[in-house]
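#struct-pred
JK: can someone run the complex with oxalic acid? inputs below
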Amino acid sequence: MSAAPTTNPKLLAWVEEMIQLCQPAGVHWCDGSEAETQRLCDLMVQGGTFTKLNEKLRPGCYLARSHASDVARVEDRTFICAKTQEEAGPNNHWADPAEMRQRLLGLFKGSMAGRTMYIIPFAMGPLDSPIAKIGIEVTDSAYVVVNMRIMTRMGQAVLDKLGVGGAFIPCLHSVGAPLRPGQQDVPWPCEPDPKKKYIVHFPDDPSIWSFGSGYGGNALLGKKCLALRIASTIARREGWLAEHMLILGLTSPQGTKHYVAAAFPSACGKTNLAMMQPSLPGWKVTCLGDDIAWLRLGQDGRLYATNPETGFFGVAPGTSQHSNPNALAAITRNTIFTNVALKPDGDVWWEDMGVPAPATAIDWEGNDWTPDCGRKAAHPNSRFTAPAAQCPVIDPDWQSAEGVPLSAILFGGRRATTIPLVNEAVSWEHGVFLGSACGSETTAAALGKAGVLRRDPFAMLPFCGYNMGDYFAHWLALAQRTDRRKLPRVFFTNWFRRSDSGKWLWPGYGENSRVLKWVCERVEGTGQAVETPIGFLPTPDALDLSGLNLNGDDLRHLLSVDVEGWKKEVEDVAASYSNYKDRLPSALTEQLALLRQRLG
Ligand code: OXD
Ligand code: MN
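RT: done, structure tokens with the ligand placed:
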């Protein structure tokens, strides 16, 4: 056991308890140093978990291949163990906290046998931020350690900040694959039985227990588990918000800068928008975060956003020079790739990378692959883990302790019909309504059946750690806690509209800057708009479409109100609201009634 680099008695006692429970072969306190990372990467190369990529083509980069049963977040195995089911709400799987604790104690007993227990001190949020939170993840996965070092502020500085009396959120993680004496390890140990995976949150402790998976949000416990599910419950008590949002800065050719946060469900291109290269000449986007934003009211009454993470855990397929040149630049070095394809030259490849497929490759399962073999080379949920600081357009204030003041919030989803390219809320309550009505159609890649609409309020359905009805109320209450004119303006966007024949109507990516420009103009009071039953829509010439070859019919389609479609939308939102019963704030029922009335 490496000597404990802390005298915090609560931490020492908890770690001792975890050692007794999990029975590891050794214990390592992580210091977050470069040397430590290198040692762990070397160890994983020796053990077959990592393949070192070509040092000339991808310096400091590694490829991991997961077990085929462990490739994504497992929402049906994710639990919020609040005191009552009502507290967790219909948006969460609930289990009685005492019963779940007993079950987990059984699973974790001896779960780290034959393995090293790593103790990872980490902070979500800049260490000097008023809302930063310290977590300690105890894990038996070196892969988790090196990913957490990219995604969080990790190591000795966090223990120093914690001091002797500081509080932390205990996060226990095991891949759930103890080794018997002499048993040969495998490259990606995990519990292959999906029913034995558990991602469990105890919001009242608070603490996090994750068993059986080594992948992404299931295992990097700072991200979805702490910075969203647990943080949302803390934020509710403390009067702030933990959101599934990107944060970007947008600077006009005249040098005016606005900060915008945007919530889109998973697989709607948050990373692409967050670091977009605007097609409009003279406009500049800077990135502050691509997945999570913590929002709090500043002393001036404005809403400030902070990215609690320090890295990007982005989906690789589809990332290309066209869709996201800045992400491609960010992952040229010091990046961990998981489940992408390996080329013969020791570089990586994935579908829709915008470069020709290699004649041969090793696919994400480690098998030989050729372009005509009928299988995908990279898993659709394959990922890159890259330091945010490597993004060429990282915003100079991305680590500011205070965060940045938001001018606008965008909601959105992947919707083939009905929802226009952009519309603006007429009031804060209407904005909260738009957030609550977020939904997205599943992509073929993600779930096997395309085009099924899933309501995902505020893009937080899998991430809100308490009853979503209470969460709506928490959002609505912001207008009582500050001068509502200081709150960000709220917009709804849809980059994914299709024509009746299935053609994309909007080119997306860098062209989305045209919508962002209108958003800035609305904030500044210069953007032209028409009030419609669904909110403000840009007038036909309000969007800057210079240099874009968009035909008039398509534009009309993108910016009109499809009354019949909206009538169906209203009923669908009403059905989703009925889940929340008496926890649904009356302000939202009113918004729905008003919309119904306006649609006639
Ligand atoms: C993610 C997600 O991985 O939202 O960020 O699923
Ligand atoms: Mn996400």
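RT: quick notes.
The pocket of oxalic acid (ligand 1) is lined by residues 73, 217, 266, 291 (CB under 6 Å).
The mean pLDDT is 96.
JK: thanks, will look after standup
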